[in-house]
């Protein structure tokens, strides 16, 4: 490329960067729980049909406000403040319904008319004793709106779906301000929109930290490497432009940054820096041979340009393999990361060529003392490794065997709240709700009759459902269970004067029919449609569980399976566990199931590139073995440190494989170049080791610095991504400097068909 073309390339890059700033202004951060649901999955399709059948979409949009009064809830000032807060929340925009003891009524039939009386007579303290006895004996309110110790009361509100971030903030801030104004003894708020806003705030904060630390570390490495401020600025500009283009594409396609895609900038920065180091060190090496600046530059691009492109392909493949998952945020992350890598590659190749073409020869070319030290170190390392090659191979074989033992200890487990920083106050609020009320994890169970002429309005069928309800409460810990039975019990209670002792399922079919018709004439008709299908053949049981991990909920699922089989319910109806919590659990299973597939695809692409570089099937084994071992070691540390396999930690294997093989490709590319000069295999391997060793070590250190910035993350999963990726890359460096040259010398055959020992 001549000077004219270089100027043209720089002009195109500059113009495109300016244009990229336009969509970049609209880029936002996002975290919506629904986005994590596995797209096209059979369970998701069932859940969507379930929501449509029972119109239950709004039930996940809860806002649960816990209010504690040290003297107990039946204090007039406390009840007045609770009622004030209840009415305030009711009037807020985007709030659809609110449940509170201070506005609830007890219904009863008298003279064939339905009547209502306040559940709590706020203005009549003399009635508090009777009210308290009635409330605490009412099964329908206990553990949901009243705490177990009687000192806390809850307000349950529901907001509209698909709110904007500013609308979510408005609701939460308005409630907080009103609570502060009323001055309760203790308050707690749990809400889906609050979890989402906490995630957004943490994503924004972590994004700035990742980017700042990665650029700081890169600047430090560049200065130590080249001892020049100018050689820091240009690579940083290349990295910045690459990131801007990638983020602009994300914004232009209508996507946003989430907890996963917010990792893109530091990843792009360090991988882009890896290419810069490989090109720069090779360019400097060629200059030291006495070549002119332009000749050295052209030779550099001829010799390692293709290898650099191959490494870009392998790393991008690791990200693109995430496209096989049905989790849209993960799929988008893989796609945009892969596109970003090719963008970074193109910008790096054109910009770096122009920079070195128009700038003077780097002063580091004339500083050969440090280079001698590198050569001496690498020569000693190579000699030691070859001398003890069988010992080295034995050690790594033993490490693999030990790794297999610990890999078996890895568990699949996850929880949405586990990712939130331990010091975040929202965790205390959820702990309070778990302890004092029915729990915060939604529970949904669908029951469907098997035969077309069956109905859940038949008393025997309802009694069988009641068996299931009792089991869910007593053996599975499901709290605040609601189903059509709840409405029939409430109607039975109302028809018998509102007495708590009559809150029970009717004992005859006539009452069932009568109550059903009565419910249809009241405000509870809508509630019945939320729990009983129009054809009466399907019903819904909802409830609350404590916040559970996948592992803990698996125990509950197994209990239900065994109970269903043992009770011979299969003759009557089918059951299906569903709900947003179940779908979130499935995210982890979906990603872990795709883990092996992603690695196999990556291995296939890497093998193909290896065959292009050096013909022969043996080279495939030589390139795969040293890069698979780090994956074993990384997985072993997961088992050793009890790091669970979940949505975020499962995606790193294919990515790590693609990045780790980067240096192997550069090693093999240089080996091909040395062999083309007619050198013997042992000498060619030694020359390759000495010439690429420095670049391999430095690029690995740069990659480590980039991924170690993720250790600053407040998200547990992101922290472990940084830890495990750093471990994998460091292990891959050791493999590259030890196992790769040994395997080449032992098994690779040159064109004459002779290996290194012949």
Describe what you observe in this structure.
- This protein has 758 residues and is α+β, with helices and mostly antiparallel strands.
- The chain has four domains: 169 residues, Up-down Bundle (Multidrug efflux transporter AcrB transmembrane fold), CATH 1.20.1640; 137 residues, Alpha-Beta Plaits, CATH 3.30.70; 204 residues, Up-down Bundle (Multidrug efflux transporter AcrB transmembrane fold); 151 residues, no CATH class.
- Helix content is 63%, strand content 9%.
- The strands form three sheets. The protein has a four-stranded antiparallel beta sheet, sandwiched between helices.
- Strand 3 and strand 4 form a beta hairpin.
- The longest helix is centred in the first third of the chain and has 35 residues.
- The C terminus is likely disordered.
User: How many separate structural domains?
Assistant: 4
The coarse overall form would be elongated
CATH-defined superfamily of the largest domain: Multidrug efflux transporter AcrB transmembrane domain
Low-confidence stretches: 752-758
* Helix-strand category: alpha+beta
- The assigned CATH architecture of the largest domain is Up-down Bundle
Mean pLDDT: 87
CATH class of the largest domain: Mainly Alpha
Strand tally is 10
Number of H/I helices: 25
Q: Percent range for helical residues?
A: 55-70%
Q: What's the gyration radius in Å?
A: 33 Å
Strand content: 5-15%
Q: How many angstroms separate the termini?
A: 43 Å
Seen as an oligomer or otherwise, the chain set is single chain
Q: What can be said about the biggest beta sheet?
A: 4 strands, antiparallel
